[in-house]
Amino acid sequence: MVRRLDVTGADGVRLAAWEFREAATVPSPSRSGSSPSGRPSGASPSGPPSGPAPSGEPAALLLHGLMGRAFHWAGTARWLGESRRVVALDQRGHGQSDRPPAGPGSSVSYGREAFVADAEAAVEQLGLAPVTLIGHSMGALTAWQLAARRPDLVAALVICDMRASALGEASQQEWEEWFHRWPLPFPTQDAARRWFGEDDPRVERPDPGRGAFFAEVMHEADDGWRPLFSRRQMLTARETWVHDAHWEELAQVRCPTLVVRGLDGELGRAEAQEMVRVLPAGQYAEIPDAGHYLHYDHPTAWREAVEPFLEGIKTSA
Q: 119 — phi, psi (to 5°)?
């Protein structure tokens, strides 16, 4: 089952966290991503936080990337839940968490400090420490920034396809132009899946994992299928980190850390290996035939890359 837990993030923003229990019965999100009640399928109603994990039970907090949602981690949660408490967070502006308004101050509402403070609040309010942080893309950046700032909260870290170098203004402009090309609204969720997986000009060859990833952040509106997030707010969030390099904070991470990249992802091999070198306790893993959405492209290979690292952490603890 999947249970919703409410978290109060930075500036009082209401965040939806999802605790995955009884791994054998964890559901995948429905094609629309929600049940008639507005909750993701299989989710129980919001209740009081579960409190600290039972003595000896490790915990993991899963942080999705920009435009993602907590339920993107459902497949990972199935096997993680066999040996630990698993919580995934809908980050601000995503999924069923609050979306602070755009306008004056929005760069603060969607800045790095806010995302890191939200993750810190989830760890503390849900009693997850010492936690294993697993982050994809922007969520990985949030994870390592939290690990650097609050080492007392973090036992281990998995960085999934996120660069430490600055991407620059040209990258931001490309994203803005890409958002304008989205043929919204999509007539069906399958049409969204096809566009992002096959027809998007940014796709060089069919990419079913990418199509599935984006299909699951679409919801049915009055005029068709639209994203759960504001594209303008996503650009604002990205603007706050895309111009900066993040090597200094990476070097401050002291816990065991696994850097995972897809062979065809956004993190190049040379940069990934340099990240491992910079990390005091870094390890490296690579998944062939996978792109940026590698946990969707090859979930079995993703597990085979991550699980031994986590088992090694448990053994050495």
A: -65, -40
Distance CA 64, CA 5 (A): 17
Cα dihedral sign, 38-30-59-256: negative
| Angle at the Cα of 68 from the Cα atoms of 211 and 122, rounded to 5 degrees | 155
User: In sequence order, what DSSP letters do the residues of the chain get, joined into one string?
Assistant: -EEEEEEE-GGG-EEEEEEE-SGGGPPPPPTTSS-TTSSPTTEEEEES---SPPTT--EEEEE--TT--GGGGHHHHHHHTTTSEEEEEE-TTSTTS--PPSSTTHHHHTSHHHHHHHHHHHHHHTT--SEEEEEETHHHHHHHHHHHH-TTTEEEEEEES--SS---HHHHHHHHHHHHH--PSBSSHHHHHHIIIIISTT-SS--HHHHHHHHTTEEEETTEEEESS-HHHHHHHHHHHHTS--HHHHHT--S-EEEEEETTSSS-HHHHHHHHHHSTTEEEEEETT--TTHHHH-HHHHHHHHHHHHHHHHHH-
Would you say 43 and 2 are in contact if contact means Cβ atoms under 8 Å apart? yes
- Per-residue model confidence (pLDDT) at position 33: 41
Query: What confidence tens digit (pLDDT) does each residue in 119-156 have?
Result: 999 999 999 999 999 999 999 999 999 999 999 999 99
Is a pLDDT exceeding 70 seen at residue 39? no
Instruction: Indicate if the pLDDT at residue 41 is higher than 90.
Output: no
Chain mean position to CA 273: 22
- Residue for token pair 């630990």: 84
Query: In whole angstroms, what is the distance from residue 306 CA to residue 165 CA?
Result: 23
CA–CA gap between residue 126 and residue 59 (Å, rounded)? 10
Task: Name the pairing type of β-strands 224-227 and 218-221.
Answer: antiparallel
Q: Are 23 and 81 in contact (CB under 8 A)?
A: yes
pLDDT at residue 42 in the model: 44
Structure tokens at 194: 């096809």
Phi-psi region of 103 (alpha: psi -120 to 50; beta: other; left: phi over 0): left
pTM of the model: 0.90
